[in-house]
Amino acid sequence: MNNILEIKNIHVQYGNIKALNSVSLTVQKGDIVSLIGANGAGKSSLLKAVSGLEPITQGTIEYNNQIINSYQSSKRLRPDIISSMGIALVPEGRGVFSQMTVLENLEMGAFLVRDKAIISKKLLEIYAMFPILKDRKDQKSGSLSGGEQQMLAIGRALMSSPEVLLLDEPGLGLAPLIIKGIFEVIRSINDEYKTTIFIVEQNAKLALKNSNKGFVMETGVIVLSDLSANLIENPQVKAAYLGE
Amino acid sequence: MLNLLLLVMILLGLYIILSLSLNLIAGYTGLLSLCHAAFYGIGAYTTAILSVHTGLSFWLLLPISGLVAAVSGVLIGLPTLRLKGDYLAIATLGFAEIVRNVLTNWDSLTGGPRGISGIKPPVLFGYTLDPLKKVNYLILVWFFVAITFFVLKRIMESRFGRALEAIREDEIAASSMGINTTKYKVVSFSIGAFFAGIAGSIFAVFIPVVVPGGFDFMLSVTILCMVVLGGMGNHIGALIGASIIYIASMLPQILGFSSIISPQFNQIIFGLILVIMMIYKPDGIVGRKKPDFEKLIGASLKKEVSR
């Protein structure tokens, strides 16, 4: 019905190694979806395929019923085009432009927005969401702490008012308290803007607690998919990912 | 003596154009290119060949040479710019060697190792700029230094320049901001090549002989060192870096020691400057951007007050 993202039987290969083996999943408009799994399960490869950074060898990915990545190279869209259609990626390791100031980073997020009024309105919204970024707006982003950089990366992705927000391990290398705060903000983004959110995360507990739907991935295959509330109670998940 | 000083100032101007344009490619966009001398050579040979065979005016050959260099920048850029760091450096190095070999061996077109002479001097309002009257060329070169400086400064401060910086900082993040990274990299590469071609064209009419030996790998490395010494991504830095390295290498001649000190001594000075710089000033003399101390202190004060 309201499928905003439809991933159909995709394969991703690095040389001879299969990173994704026939993965299918759908994301519905307005949902928060989390994808959990161990290191090397293929979570990041999936996000890269969705944002057009990784070509797929089989299958297709559709966004709003339009093919954005496909096994046919003629139907693949470039990453910058995919992002201009409303899919914003917060890359793994945050990827802030460290030599630029916080404000310049946020302005880069609105690179495709030509209307100055919209940019300044968006900027105020981001500052309201992350007051620390306003305090640090003239500071080089490389000098921010890890948590602040993650906030900046999320704020930057929101500057383009995306329909879908892809987050690659937002909790990577951050203190538990900070991760909690980041997840609270992610929920409020979903509440306020109805942005569809797709989180890839190793911290299974937090990711499942803060999402409606969850997928579990193991060595390139989706092994479980359910409502997040059910996955938390699932004995298999409990044993493998929640340490209970 | 005056003649030597004028010669140094003219060649310094050309080096500054080269380092400013490489700064756009390497300092701003972060593409480690080792073929800038090739673009310089392509510009010089375009002017030389067309001047001798067609007799076109310099004022027409100048933009043509820039464009030929820019087009060759696109041709080499399209296949190689997906490479990163050292891989790109090696690919551009290969391109530079191809250009040098073509210039040396295509006898019928480039005159082989003997090069091309008889390049016609530019004529301005009926007044011929005689290469022997160096003051004319001093003005000509520094006029183009000024143009290059301001055009590249405008480019770097524009939306386009911002995108180049973003690509240098993080290509994946840049592409997810909606920047077509391949296109921007190729355009940056060809703009840099264009200005190197312009410098080559001026060089050809000034000397007025072109030989392939002048556009070798050492020149590319020297230009890169000028950019690194001044500070990557800073046009003032490129200017200062070029001045220091070139003037230091000409110092024995300027001071009249060239009969005592062998020309190889230049290389020693050159190496010494780089070693000292890497130890004490690894970011280059000027660094990437001048830190705005007033603003920093002001911001922290404001924070204190608001507490």
List its traits.
heterodimer, A: 244 residues, alpha/beta, six-stranded mixed beta sheet, four-stranded antiparallel beta sheet, 10 helices, 28% strand, globular, B: 307 residues, mainly alpha, 13 helices
Helix percent of chain A reads 25-40%
User: Helix count of chain B, per DSSP?
Assistant: 13
Q: What does the radius of gyration of chain A come to? A: 18 Å
- What structural category arises from helix and sheet content of chain A? alpha/beta
Helix content range of chain B: over 70%
| Overall morphology of chain B | globular
CA-to-CA gap between the ends of chain B? 65 Å
Largest beta sheet: strand ordering of chain B: 1-2
Strand order of the largest sheet of chain A: 6-7-8-3-9-10
Could you describe the 3D structure shown?
The complex is a heterodimer of chains A (244) and B (307). Chain A is an alpha/beta fold and 244 residues long. Chain A has ten helices and ten strands. In chain A, the strands form two sheets. Chain A has a six-stranded mixed sheet with strand order 6-7-8-3-9-10, sandwiched between helices. A four-stranded antiparallel sheet of chain A has the order 2-1-4-5, covered by helices on one side. In chain A, a hairpin with a 2-residue loop joins strand 1 and strand 2. In chain A, helix 3 packs parallel to helix 6. Chain A is globular and about 45 Å long. The termini of chain A are far apart. Chain B has one domain. Chain B has a two-stranded antiparallel sheet with strand order 1-2. In chain B, a hairpin with a 2-residue loop joins strand 1 and strand 2. In chain B, helix 1 packs antiparallel against helix 9, helix 2 packs antiparallel against helix 3 and helix 10 packs across helix 11. Classes of the chains: A alpha/beta (244), B mainly alpha (307). At the A-B interface, helix 2, helix 3 and helix 6 of A face helix 7, helix 8 and helix 13 of B.
